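Late entry, written up from scratch paper. The run itself happened at the end of the previous shift, but nothing got recorded in the book at the time, so transcribing now.
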Amino acid sequence: MIEKIKSLLQLTRPLNVVITFFVVIVGAVISVEQDYSSLKIILAGISAGLTAAAGNVINDVIDINADKINHPERPLPSGKLKSSEAIVEYALLIASALFISAYVNSEALIIVIVTSVLLFLYSYRLKRIPFIGNLTVAFLTGLAFIYGGIAVNNFTNAIIPALFAFMINLIREIIKDMQDVEGDAKAGIVTLPQKTGFDKVKTIVMLLSILLIVSTLIPFVYKIYNIEFFVIAMLLVNPLLVYVVKSLYEDHSQKNLNKLSNMLKLNMLFGLIAIFLGR
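Output as recorded:
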């Protein structure tokens, strides 16, 4: 039973769930300009985390054949869990997210519904369309900041971090596609790296990274964020982006691509800290 619970938890990608929770919290905190409910902020974070968890579960259910090649250690392809068990978990997570978001406000409920539908469509169809799947995941990641702003009835302050989150996750999703290219090809999933080749994808990643680095200067120059944001961005976020691009050009082995994907996830946390302290 303990192993079963561990497998169910692993299926949700706990780290991604925690990051989603804190993205919403930060989105709410930087958006506060009037009276607000701390409980609703926390509930918004929980509902977002549950929605992300559900999306990860249904993605693994639909991608079980590709994961037998790309990620054979995961609960479903390894046989630790049955697909029927994962579907029950998915339904419970979605139901919980909808119930909790309805308490936050009606706009939050609508976003959870839209996000749940998009996550399902991503796993079922959109990820099989080159670049569209990457854009979908990046959009939903940025939307988490907006969701935090909606929890406090003011999302305008969350727009800039949402754009940053969109860009860094777009880069990460492209690198993940490079990592999974073999299994995706055998599963009939056509991704950007398959369509254009690794060399062109590396150029795209480099250009997106340059655009993101330049973009981090704008909130400081226009005094939207304070010096704390600038310092963390210049000392942690941007150097890590430069390292990712350099390493990508030197080595596109699966092992290194996995490392770079995890580094970008860590960079998202650094970005959260920079935005939180910079406001």
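The chain is about 80% helix and 0% strand.
(Scratch paper discarded after transcription.)
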